[in-house]
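note to self: dont lose this again. the chain is below, predicted strucutre after it. 98 aa total, dont forget to put it in the shared folder this time
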Amino acid sequence: MPKEQRTFTKEFKLEAVRLARTSGKPMLHIARDLGIADSTLHHWCKEFAQAGEKAFPGSGNPPAHEEELRRLKRELEVTRQERDILKKAVAIFSRNQS
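---
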């Protein structure tokens, strides 16, 4: 049975990062106290260090580069489907020519 992925609010993540930076306790203890994996807390701290207050935008407001990547992946998939259809059409028409 697949494990359900938990989601956390931006406020929770920011508070966890603040605790990790200011409390003086090891990240492992803070993560255990919050009920999250220490790797998760480490990832949040790293993301906050890179993006600052713009970190943790949520699924409704992705960064511009992620939205561009998503758009390009969709476009690539459509292009592949069109290519496959054309290949099949060529195969069908070339069979009728023989």
